[in-house]
Amino acid sequence: MTAAPVTADTSSDLPPGYDPALYNADLAPVPAARRDWSWVNMATVWMGMVHNIVVYEAASGLMALGFSAWECLEIVAVAYAVLFVAMWFNARAGTKYGIPFCVLIRSAFGPYGAQIPVVLRGFCAVFWFSVQAYAAAQAVDAVMSTLSGAWAGMTASFLGMQARTWVAMAIVWALHAWIVSHGVHRIRNFELVAGPLVIVVGLLATIWGLHVGHGLGPLFAQPSRLHGMAFWSTFAMGVTGMIGLWATFAVNIPDLSRFVKSERDQVVGQAIGLPVTALVFTPMGIITTSATIILFGHPIWNPVDLLLALNYPVVTILGGATLVLATLSVNVVANIMPASYDLVNLMPRRLDFHRAARLVLVLGVFFMPWLWFNQADSIYRVLDLIGGMLGPVTGIMLADFYVVRKQALDVAALYRLDGRYAGRKGWNPPALVAFAAGGGLASIGHVVPGLEGLNAVSWFIGVAIGGGVYLALSRRQGQDMWNGADDTASLPSTAS
């Protein structure tokens, strides 16, 4: 079932009483009849996101800390179980009311205050899109350079990057544009194919690794180098680091769950697509890398480097195409889609989903990822700080929906500047204070010497402090919010 693409909203489509600064067709609740994603769609979307280059290489980071391969799998299991629970509960409002993150967050922060977490999430999304897309461009460049001497000869440089890499970037950017050109329904259909296909290719690579290694390989035989308290503190840091890969998506999971048929489809789809896929994909990476130790004498965790080292044209083409497909699969859902909704939320009268998606592609170029790509420490330090600020947002959203609102929202009021969620002139002080307190404590270990140990549990600190402070201040403020709202409030007739 494929729905017609949504066009930009006009003033005549504005439901009575709604503010045009807070509403357009893409931000409107999705009616029940249009929520046509099943658990299969939700699972394949997550499959497409979980098996990407960053997650593939994450196992190398854990093993570099001293963990054994089996302990890496334990860390992955714990981290993704926590993520699954957080996303399960945070996705419920999207499934129930059909509203995206940037609208749902107004309930806690107010219509103007909500722009702070929305802008932070949008910044992370555009930045990650830029970096991931550039990684795919490098894969295209490596494959084409191997297969074509003419391509490899394009060595002229412009703005610090070779001409052939510019062409590779143009190809990758054009592929992203094609996938998002018909909105979320094309994204759903693309993930239905891309997610399982990448898993199939990963299984083929795993079979190759088992053949070369005559079993699980040397990495699975490597013992742990961590014991006692050193083990547990590093284990906590590893879990937090794995959660950090998806902490930003934990806040905007309603962007996906708003299209799902039922709560059961949402839960089953996420359970299969998130923790189960992660536990399947991680050993694939370890087994494949074990084979590289036998073949080359050292581990090769970067898939592009592995393709070049193997130097088989057929394998290079297949592997390179799979890397590009995997990057497209994660980028369109985890980065372009939320960033587009965030931009629409900032300018609902000027942007729709399609225009915003094109703007994300343009902004991605201006982030100049080729200048950042080889400075991983700087990238992750900045993004860790921003991601640490989004932990409290998760806590505040959960506290607001489940405790303060008792899972009942007045949907129409979310689109009004003077509604029950307006706070003080569009700003809700309890959420803002909780956001600052949780974000500050979650990130303090990055800037204050002696408190680095807090980084091991920064996301958990952010969620707990953000949610706890928000509840305390909301109760003290004695707002009408504690009475809940009528969840049968009228929904606008305009479909998203």
From TrEMBL:
<feature type="transmembrane region" description="Helical">
    <location>
        <begin position="45"/>
        <end position="65"/>
    </location>
</feature>
<dbReference type="InterPro" id="IPR045225">
    <property type="entry name" value="Uracil/uridine/allantoin_perm"/>
</dbReference>
<feature type="transmembrane region" description="Helical">
    <location>
        <begin position="192"/>
        <end position="210"/>
    </location>
</feature>
<feature type="transmembrane region" description="Helical">
    <location>
        <begin position="309"/>
        <end position="334"/>
    </location>
</feature>
<feature type="transmembrane region" description="Helical">
    <location>
        <begin position="426"/>
        <end position="448"/>
    </location>
</feature>
<keyword id="KW-0472">Membrane</keyword>
<comment type="similarity">
    <text>Belongs to the purine-cytosine permease (2.A.39) family.</text>
</comment>
<dbReference type="Pfam" id="PF02133">
    <property type="entry name" value="Transp_cyt_pur"/>
</dbReference>
<keyword id="KW-1133">Transmembrane helix</keyword>
<dbReference type="InterPro" id="IPR001248">
    <property type="entry name" value="Pur-cyt_permease"/>
</dbReference>
<dbReference type="GO" id="GO:0015205">
    <property type="term" value="F:nucleobase transmembrane transporter activity"/>
</dbReference>
<feature type="transmembrane region" description="Helical">
    <location>
        <begin position="385"/>
        <end position="405"/>
    </location>
</feature>
<feature type="transmembrane region" description="Helical">
    <location>
        <begin position="163"/>
        <end position="180"/>
    </location>
</feature>
<feature type="transmembrane region" description="Helical">
    <location>
        <begin position="230"/>
        <end position="251"/>
    </location>
</feature>
<feature type="transmembrane region" description="Helical">
    <location>
        <begin position="272"/>
        <end position="297"/>
    </location>
</feature>
<feature type="transmembrane region" description="Helical">
    <location>
        <begin position="72"/>
        <end position="91"/>
    </location>
</feature>
<dbReference type="GO" id="GO:0005886">
    <property type="term" value="C:plasma membrane"/>
</dbReference>
<keyword id="KW-0812">Transmembrane</keyword>
<feature type="transmembrane region" description="Helical">
    <location>
        <begin position="454"/>
        <end position="473"/>
    </location>
</feature>
<protein>
    <submittedName>
        <fullName>NCS1 family nucleobase:cation symporter-1</fullName>
    </submittedName>
</protein>
<feature type="transmembrane region" description="Helical">
    <location>
        <begin position="355"/>
        <end position="373"/>
    </location>
</feature>
